[in-house]
Amino acid sequence: MIQKLLIANRGEIAVRIIRACREMGIKTVAVYSRADADALHTLLADEAICIGPESSRDSYLNMEQILSAAVVMKADAIHPGFGFLSENSRFARMCSQCHIKFVGPDPDVISRMGNKAEARKTMMAAGIPVVPGSREPVREWQEGQREADRIGYPVMVKAALGGGGKGMRIVRDSKDFQSQFQMAQRETEAAFGDDNMYVEKYIENPRHVEFQILADEFGNVIHLGERDCSIQRRHQKLVEEAPCPAISEKQREIMGETAVRAAKAAGYENAGTIEFLLDKDGSFYFIEMNTRIQVEHGITEAVTGIDLIKEQLRIASGLPLAFRQEDVSIRGHAIECRINAENPARNFMPSPGTVTNLHFPGGNGVRIDSAVYNGYTVPPYYDSMILKLIVWASSREDAVRKMRSALGELVIEGIHTNLDFQYDILCSRDYEEGKVDTGFIESHFGQRTEKDARKSPV
C-alpha cells in the first residue's frame, strides 16, 4: 500500500482525499500556496509544505516544485485531485521518472484521451458511437469550414486539448464560421497553449450523461452507474444527480456496457468517466473521457456505497478491484449542488472575501464537501467553487425535497454565492419533473436581469 501521499491540489478535494487517507492509515502531505497558508487542507494534513506564491502558475501548476516537495517529504505517491495537473500527461510521466506513483492512469492514456480528436479516433476504432465530426485535429479555419459543410450545421467547434467549456463555440451558419472558429482557437491557445481544434455536429439540447469507471492493472473494468449532469451554465456543471431519471434499466445496461468497452479500448486504469450526449430519441454518443476523479463523484458514492477515493488508492497500490460488476447495485437517488463564490446578479462575477457567518445543514442523507470555515477568506486566485452539497434519499422526489430543505438551511454570509440561484433551479417545475437538458439554464433563467435576480446575503 501507499505509505505517504502528497496531494497536488487544494480546497475541498484535497480535504476529501486527506479524510480517505486517514481512514486507510496513509500519511498525507499538503502542498499550499502563500494564499492558502491557513486553508483547511493545509491544517488537516499530517505535514504541509509551501510550494510558491499565490498564482496557480507558480504554485499548483508548478510541476518541478511539487515533485521537489514530494521528494523532500519522502512521499511515495501523488494524488492530483481534479483540475490543475490532474490530466497533465507530462506531470504523470515526471512522477514515474522520479519513482513516485501517480494516482491515475498511464501518461500515454492521459495524452491520448485528453486529446479529443485522438479520443474520438480510439472510440471509433472500437465501434463506440461518437458524434459525427472531424477525424483529425483542425488548425486552419478553411479546413474546419469544409468539415462543417460536410457534417451539416449547426456544429460545435472545440479545443482538441483541454476542457471546462474553454475554446468552445456553436456555429449555426457558414457565414459565421470563420469568426467563431478563430475566437475559439485564440481562447484555446491562451488556456491550453495549443491551437488544435476539431469540429463536430452540434446536438440541440441533449442530456449530458456520464458513466463512472473503475479499472485495475489486471484488466478488470466495471462501471458504477451514471450521473446526469445536464444542468450547466456555459458548459460548467451546476447540479448533478444519480441515477439519470430519463433512462430505463435496459438502456442503463447498454450504455454501461458501452462505457466499459470504451475504457478497455483506451487501456484505462484507475477511476475515470466516460461522457455521453443522450439525444431526445434515446441515441447516445461518446464525447470525451475524463482521466481523473470528477467533482461530482460523491453522488455515485451515495447511490453505490463505494468510496471512490479509497478505490483509487487501492488500484494505485497494485491491488485488484474488490468487487465485480454484478456486485454493484444502485440504491435510491442522490443530487449534488455546486455552491460557488460568485454573484448571479452581476453575471456570476467571482466574489472572494471573508466568510463572516457559516451554518451547514445536517440530518440523515445530507453531506457537505467543503474547505470553508467561519472566518475563512476565499482567495481571488482560484476556482470559485467553495462547497458541494450532496443529498441522498430513497426516491428522486424525496431527494429533491431534501435538497430544497438543505439549501434553505445553508447559510454563507460575507460573500455573494449562487445559493439562491441553486434553490430556484430546484424549485422549478420542469426540474421537479425531470425535464432537463443542457439548455435548461438558458431557457429558464436566460432573461434574468440584475433587478430581478435574487442575491445571497452579504
Describe the structure.
This protein has 458 residues and is α+β, with helices and mostly antiparallel strands. It folds into 3 domains: 4-103, Rossmann fold (3-Layer(aba) Sandwich); 132-201, ATP-grasp fold, A domain (Dna Ligase, domain 1, 2-Layer Sandwich); 207-445, D-amino Acid Aminotransferase, Chain A, domain 1 (2-Layer Sandwich). Helix content is 33%, strand content 25%. It contains 15 helices and 22 strands. The protein is globular.
Nearest-angstrom radius of gyration? 21 Å
**Total E-strand runs:** 22
CATH class of the largest domain: Alpha Beta
Q: Remind me, CATH topology of the largest domain?
A: D-amino Acid Aminotransferase, Chain A, domain 1
CATH superfamily of the largest domain: ATP-grasp fold, B domain
Summarize the structure.
Helices cover 33% and strands 25% of the residues. It has helices spanning 11-24, 40-44, 63-72, 89-97, 107-114, 116-125, 141-151, 177-192, 249-266, 297-304, 308-316, 396-409, 419-427, 429-432, 440-445; strands spanning 4-7, 27-33, 47-52, 77-79, 101-102, 155-159, 169-171, 197-201, 207-215, 221-233, 236-242, 270-278, 284-290, 333-340, 342-343, 349-350, 353-354, 357-359, 366-370, 377-378, 385-393, 411-413.
Which features does this protein show?
single chain, 458 residues, alpha+beta, Rossmann fold, Dna Ligase, domain 1, D-amino Acid Aminotransferase, Chain A, domain 1, 3 domains, eight-stranded antiparallel β-sheet, five-stranded parallel β-sheet, 15 helices, 33% helix, globular, disordered C terminus
